[in-house]
């Protein structure tokens, strides 16, 4: 596993997901402690689940204070910045845009760290573990965030979300033996970003089961 590549995407994902977690907490009118808790859960929760499943104990986040401090400082900065924004429709739209940008960057970055962790373990099938760890790392923190915020996890209903992580991780795992781990990582990042951006821009959705029409008698 390329340690420098892993660290770069880990920092990007931690900051981006800390922002999205803090913004959800602010939207739910939590105090600053709640903002920090949701930022931490979103930023390190998926990685901790990943590490436990990969047999890495204690999880990396508990051995290195960097991720915790990045998430806490980000939560405090977002809390301070929000109090400086005058309430207006335009600023609320910017708030939503910032949330979507950070959530998408976090999704892409943590897909890569999970995939790289799986590739470094070299257990069994060369695709199953890296792909699943990529998806779990990418969506795990968001699921914990949404449960704490008492809302349905977005991964269960939101347009193209976990699917973007799955596609990015799978394509990158298939191609990395031929293009190298660095190029595969950036390819994964680009794929996830493009799929999420397309879903947000063009309202792409997966199939939603709906009741069929009743047949006339």
From TrEMBL:
Domain of life: Bacteria
Main location: membrane
Location of the Glycine transporter domain: 8-78, 101-176
Keywords: Cell membrane, Membrane, Transmembrane, Transmembrane helix
A Pfam family it matches: Gly_transporter
GO cellular component term, pick one: plasma membrane
Record's keyword annotation contains Transcription regulation: no
Membrane topology: Multi-pass membrane protein
The keyword Zinc is assigned to this record: no
Positions of transmembrane segments: 6-26, 33-53, 59-83, 95-115, 127-148, 160-178
Cellular compartments annotated: Cell membrane
Family named by the database record: Belongs to the UPF0126 family.
PANTHER family reported in the protein's UniProt record: INNER MEMBRANE PROTEIN, UPF0126 INNER MEMBRANE PROTEIN YADS-RELATED
Protein's recorded name: Trimeric intracellular cation channel family protein
């Amino acid at each position: 596993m390329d340690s420098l590549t892993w660290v770069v995407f880990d920092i990007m994902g931690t900051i981006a997901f800390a922002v999205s977690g803090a913004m959800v907490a602010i939207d739910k009118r939590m105090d600053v402690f709640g903002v920090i808790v949701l930022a931490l859960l979103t930023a390190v929760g998926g990685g901790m689940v990943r590490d436990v499943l990969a047999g890495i104990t204690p999880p990396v986040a508990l051995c290195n204070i960097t991720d915790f401090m990045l998430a806490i400082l980000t939560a405090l900065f977002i809390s301070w910045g929000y109090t400086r924004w005058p309430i207006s429709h335009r600023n609320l739209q910017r708030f939503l845009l910032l949330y979507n940008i950070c959530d998408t960057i976090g999704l892409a970055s943590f897909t890569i760290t999970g995939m790289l962790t799986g590739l470094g373990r070299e257990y069994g099938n060369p695709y199953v573990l890296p792909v699943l760890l990529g998806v779990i790392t990418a969506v795990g923190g968001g699921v914990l965030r949404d449960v704490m915020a008492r809302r349905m996890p977005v991964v269960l209903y939101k347009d193209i979300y976990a699917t973007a992580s799955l596609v990015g991780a799978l394509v990158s795992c298939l191609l990395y033996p031929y293009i190298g781990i660095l190029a595969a990582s950036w390819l994964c990042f680009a794929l996830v970003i493009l799929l999420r951006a397309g879903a947000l821009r063009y309202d792409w959705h997966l199939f939603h089961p709906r009741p069929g029409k009743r047949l006339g008698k």
